Amino acid sequence: MSGVTGRSSPGALRSDDLDRPSSSLDLRPDLKLIVDLVPEKSRVLDIGCGNGDLLFELQRVRNVDARGVELSMDGVYACVTRGLSVVQGDADADLVTYPAASFDVAILSHTLQAIFDPRGVIDHLVRIARYAIVSFSNFGYWKVRWSLLTTGRMPLIGTHDRNWWDTPNIRACTISDFVLLCRDMGISIDKMLIVNEHGRARIGHPGRAANILGEQAVFVLSRSPE
Predict the structure, then answer these.
(1) Which of 53, 52, 65, 58 is nearest to 36 (CA)?
(2) CB within 8 A of 81, min separation 6: which ones?
(3) Per residue, what are the HEC states of 139-153?
(4) pTM for this structure?
(5) Separation of alpha carbons 76 and 87, rounded Å
(6) What is the DSSP-derived secondary structure letter of residue 63?
(7) E strands within the chain?
(8) Band of the pLDDT at 134, cuts 50, 70, 90?
(9) Furthest-apart CA atoms within the chain: distance in Å
């Protein structure tokens, strides 16, 4: 995608854009998609930015005005070392302090499962930015279902070096769960991309197939008109 350029609609996404390489870093599949979704020179807030890989790439590729919020001090130090503008903060508690329409894009990548109030955080995302981009691992993915069925143990998504009692995933959800939450909150789903087990992404449509075959999901959200 050539990004949500300027103030144009993110509905300009084309299938062939997804095959265009945009990153030189070894980014997660969902982060590569997010880079392509962010418009040039936009104001971006990345909540739960970790070590700053996405912010660094957005500055390099998209020339954005990038800001980050990260809970761990190790992550904050890593970002500052790379010259990124990042503050230590908690998505559950601190987003309320950001004025409305402060950013063009607010990003929540693989952080949804680790926050206590996903509904409140999503509400703030579409308040402080024109578009929110949310990515997460899909606990409805067929391999997750199969693992639970055959082993009787909790599947660990993206946390292979941890156990069930110390995983950061406290709000596991599926694609279907997320779609229903957005519908209940009156939030528009402007775009949905699903990533399969081979890291390939396709423009998706909410439904049973996406919920079963999507290993990860990337949503572009906005506040529905009153």
Answers:
(1) 58
(2) none
(3) CCCHHHHHHHHHHCC
(4) 0.86
(5) 7
(6) -
(7) 43-47, 65-70, 86-88, 103-109, 129-137, 187-195, 201-203, 216-223
(8) very high
(9) 49
| Cβ–Cβ under 8 Å, residues 94 and 115 | no
State residue 19's pLDDT score: 40
Q: Is 167 helix (H, G, I), strand (E, B) or coil?
A: coil
Q: Chain-centre distance of CA 173, in angstroms?
A: 14
Q: For the segment 112-126, what is each residue's pLDDT rounded down to a tens digit?
A: 988 999 999 999 999
Beta bridge partners of 158: none
Cα separations (Å) of 179 from 28, 105, 113, 222?
23, 20, 15, 13
The one-letter amino acid code at 27 reads: L
Q: What share of the chain is helix, strand, coil (3-state, %, to 5)?
A: 35, 20, 40
Is residue 22's pLDDT more than 70? Answer: no
* pLDDT tens figures, 206-223: 788 889 999 999 999 998
Residue 174's pLDDT band (cuts 50, 70, 90): very high
Q: Residue 141: how many CB atoms within 10 A of its CB?
A: 24
Q: Give 36's contacts (C-beta < 8 A, 6+ positions apart).
A: 1, 3, 17, 18, 20, 22
Token digits of residue 165:
């009692």
At residue 8, the pLDDT reads 38
Structure tokens at 29: 């599949």
